[in-house]
UniProtKB/TrEMBL annotation:
InterPro entries: DUF2530 (IPR019681). Residues 1-11 have a biased composition (Basic and acidic residues). It comes from Actinospica durhamensis. This is DUF2530 domain-containing protein. Residues 1-22 are annotated as: Disordered. The chain crosses the membrane at residues 29-50, 62-80. It comes from the Bacteria. Keywords: Membrane, Transmembrane, Transmembrane helix.
Length: 110
C-alpha cells in the first residue's frame, strides 16, 4: 500500500525502494530449550504416574515419548551451550584481532 506524497505518515522504508540490511534477531536459545525440556520432564513424571491406566487404555507408549523428549532436550541443551561458548570465543577472537589491527595501523602512521 503506497502512502501519498502529501501524507504526514512516515514509514521505516528507505527512500526510492532501497533495502536495509537486516541483522539476525538475538534469541536466548538455551532458555527456550530448557523450558521445553522442563515441560517434557513434567509430562514424563505425570505420565509415568499414570502408566498402568494408560497401558490398560492402549496408550502405554505415551510416558516413553515424554522421557525421550526429556533426554533429547538435555542433549539439545548440551549442544546449544557448546555452540554459545564457541560463538563467544569467535567473537572475542575477532574483537582481539580488530583491536590489534587498529593498534598496528595507528603505530605505523606515527
Amino acid at each position: 500500500m503506497a502512502i501519498p506524497a502529501d501524507s504526514e505518515k512516515t514509514t521505516d522504508q528507505p527512500p526510492n525502494g532501497g533495502s536495509r540490511e537486516l541483522k539476525p534477531m538475538e534469541v536466548d536459545v538455551a532458555r527456550i530449550v530448557l523450558i521445553g525440556t522442563g515441560l517434557y520432564a513434567i509430562a514424563a513424571v505425570v505420565l509415568l504416574a499414570m502408566h498402568t491406566s494408560l497401558t490398560r487404555a492402549g496408550h502405554g507408549r505415551w510416558p516413553w515419548v515424554a522421557v525421550s523428549g526429556t533426554v533429547l532436550g538435555l542433549l539439545g541443551l548440551y549442544y546449544v551451550k557448546r555452540r554459545d561458548r564457541a560463538i563467544a570465543r569467535d567473537r572475542a577472537a575477532a574483537a582481539a584481532a580488530a583491536g590489534k589491527a587498529s593498534d598496528g595501523g595507528s603505530a605505523d602512521a606515527a
